[in-house]
Amino acid sequence: MSLLEVRDLTVRYGAVQAVNGVSLEVEAGECVTVLGANGAGKTSTLKALAGLMRPAAGEVLFDGRAVTGHPAHRLARMGVTLVPEGRQVFGPLTIRENLELGGFVQTADHTRRTLEQVLGVFPQLAPRLDSLAGNLSGGEQQMLAVGRALMSQPRLLMLDEPSLGLAPLVTGRIFEVVSEIAASGIAVLLVEQNVHRALQIAQRGYVLELGRVVLQGSSTALLADDHVRLAYLGHGMGEGE
Amino acid sequence: MSLAELPQQIVNGLVVGSLYGLIALGYTMVYGIVRLINFAQGALYEVGAYLGVVIFSVLADAGLRNPVLGLVVAIVVASALTGALALVVERVAYRPLRHAPPLAPLVTSLATFFLLMSIVQVVTGAQPLNYPQVLAVTPWTLGPITLAPTAALIAVVAIVLMVAMHLFVQRTRTGKAMRAIAVNRDAAALMGINTTRVVALTFALGGAMAAAGGVLFGVNYGTVTYNMGEFGGLVAFTAAVLGGIGNVPGALVGGLTVGVLSSFATMVLPNQWQEAVVFGILIVVLAFRPQGILGERVAERA
Ligand SMILES: Nc1ncnc2c1ncn2[C@@H]1O[C@H](COP(=O)(O)OP(=O)(O)OP(=O)(O)O)[C@@H](O)[C@H]1O
Ligand SMILES: [Mg+2]
After folding, report:
1. Residue A40: nearest ligand to its CA?
2. pLDDT score at B296
3. What CATH code is carried by the domain that includes residue B218?
4. Do the bridges between strand A156-160 and strand A80-83 make them parallel or antiparallel, or are there none, so unpaired?
């Protein structure tokens, strides 16, 4: 049984059907990527899986339990976390407060210990704990967003385009951390425009087009696939965009 | 008008201003977290004041004569009941409209204001009600200033409550959750915060503070009237805007400022002009400094 099992997920914004019957699975400890062009429905899928949107149809099972339509705070308590598109750190709050909020579902004691671990992963945040998150650079904010998500000690970590708009050096560090997280046994569902890097980290991938899964397979198979090479790797290779 | 009156007017203004600040807290906290101006706040203040009368008379019937204990019980019970009423208001007038355009909950909050005001008017037969004498009447005198013990008491209680609320928002886990929701409700939900519950709690706290203000008003001025929520609500709203709506310390700063300014106004203008003066302050603030004294936030979009 997979940790996350999604069957025929459908997400709508009024009349707009953003996700149209997507099925996917993530095993415990596995890193899976979801690829797709702008507007393919990647963010909408993650929002529905994180409980920020109620699916119009379909079924979601987490750890064998039906969680379809559960609100985000309940899913967070079960260990499902999303690093949202555009980072969305709490700008007027300090870095420390952001991280503490990340550990909201944990006990205070637990949060103190996890904080040490997270600062170990992102040491550049340590000296700035009491400055405002809004004053950080984009790359630092992304690190904070990932660190904040780690504070909850998730079982499934979903990331929505963590490299978007970041300098290549920072992007490299983010991908490094994501693969470390996956290696530590946390299941990862990674949405990325940087297809090449994403397929290097992930074991498997799904390709979304117009809200449907058009292709799925191991990363090796996807990297070799003609459609993927033509549509996604042609401009995704090398540069972080 | 004589300048000799000035110190006394400042003191009067600070006393009444601390009350306005307490009511303003509800506007500012709700606005800060869900960007709604909850006009029901003025009515909750009035409901709290009337509940205070009821509680005092129940206590008197029960034979409780200790005035200070009575005041504490009245504030706590009136605040709890009004907080519960604010929860109902949130549930029926705000929550169903969460995804509606911002004007919709603004309109229902106004409707709730008029509804609650009418209920008080009908239930009480529009009769003013009297508060019992809680503390000795003999005022303290300090040079040109006289200060009634009750006046000092309400200012102290109001300021203590405001400071407590500030610390609650800044220091506690729930307060941190409130601030997170104020910045980004979805991101807060992703942290595991039950945003619906925290928002409801914010309404309840605002209602509780308004009720505390209502009871303190009754204790200090002796009489409560069926339309006190109109003026009280208006002044407190002005105080919230003046201090910077969404900003908790701003409620105190705005309350004290409006209190002192309208107190000065009574030195040069007849009493009937009070409302006009307060409206004037509101208009001037909105025109020249819509973010208020302490606030960086922009004014309501609607
Ligand atoms: N709030 C919204 N209201 C209406 N339609 C929306 C909304 N958000 C997204 N959509 C539509 O849903 C579809 C899928 O959008 P989504 O954001 O999920 O795509 P995406 O794959 O994440 O794209 P991107 O790569 O640009 O982030 C698009 O057609 C988009 O226009
Ligand atoms: Mg997206």
Report:
1. 1
2. 54
3. 1.10.3470
4. parallel
* Residue B268: Cβ-neighbour burial (10 angstroms; 0-12, 13-18, 19+): exposed
b vs e for A61-91, b when ≥16 Cβ sit within 10 Å of the residue's Cβ?
bbbeeebbebbbbebbebbbbbbbbebbbbe
- 8-state DSSP, B132: P
| Under 8 Å between Cβ of A147 and A102 | yes
Residues with CB under 5 A from ligand 2 (ion): A 43, 85
Per the structure, the count of domains in chain B is 1
Closest to B25 measured CA to CA, from B280, B199, B243: B243
Domains of chain A: 4-232 (3.40.50.300)
Q: Show the CA angle centred on residue A52, arms to residues A190 and A192, nearest 5°.
A: 20
Angstrom distance (rounded) from CA B135 to CA A143: 58
Reduced to 3 states (helix: H, G, I; strand: E, B; else coil), residue B154 is helix
ipTM (interface pTM): 0.94
This prediction has a pTM of: 0.92
Compute, in angstroms, the gap from residue B194 CA to the centroid of ligand 2: 25
The encoded tokens of residue B140 equal: 């303290």
